[in-house]
Amino acid sequence: MKLIAAAAMALCMSLTPPAFAQSNPVVVELFTSQGCSSCPPADKLLQELARRNDVIPLALHVDYWDYIGWKDLFARPQHAERQRAYAQVAGRHMIYTPQMIVNGQDDVVGARAMELADLIDAHRSTAAVIRLQASRNGERISIRAQALQPVQEPLTIFLIRFTPQHRTEIKRGENAGQVLNYANVVDDWRILGQWDGKAVFETSTTVEGPRPAVVLVQKPGPGAIVAAELVK
């Protein structure tokens, strides 16, 4: 029992937000499904990550489990396409849920909290490649990016919108009878532009509604996420 308690304490400490603000947060993408019985623990873990100020967790619900009895209310085909693209880059021949991708580079089974914590710590310690600034004034978001190191390949600038909290009663399928909470559910993902990293990148865009936004700068592939900024 003492060992179990110690492991639980270590897990809690690993997911506790640090006291300082993080200028280069780590992006954790969770590929999940309401129709997957293995996903609720990972969904709960993402809620814990959402409390941190050095991590930007994003829930990308996929649609490929919809056939087993419950259609995921938040699923989008584009999320599964992104997951397949990650798998192809990594040389994997299958995709699964729950899966977490850390900064576009490392993957871990979504419920393995300690492995995830180790990956987050490793990415937090890497030097910033891009200085990214994003601010919001009403419905307009302004973005500025500057390379701190030479950029070897074109980068893509993304804008993501998400809803911080959802609560759903699952009536059919593997999770039938459960009422589940979801954090940072992505409902919009678009490209703002391509950038070669040479000159300063500046742009602005309009958004509708009060939902938060995330700006991502990512290498092609999809590859490494080299900068991210949360805009509330």
Automatic annotation (TrEMBL):
Keywords of the record, alphabetical order, are:
Signal
Record Gene3D superfamilies:
Glutaredoxin
The answer to whether UniProt assigns keyword Signal to this entry is yes
- The answer to whether the entry has keyword Signal is yes
Which InterPro entries does the entry link to? DUF1223, Thioredoxin-like_sf
Annotated signal sequence range: 1-21
The record's Pfam families line, in alphabetical order, gives: DUF1223
Descriptive protein name? DUF1223 domain-containing protein
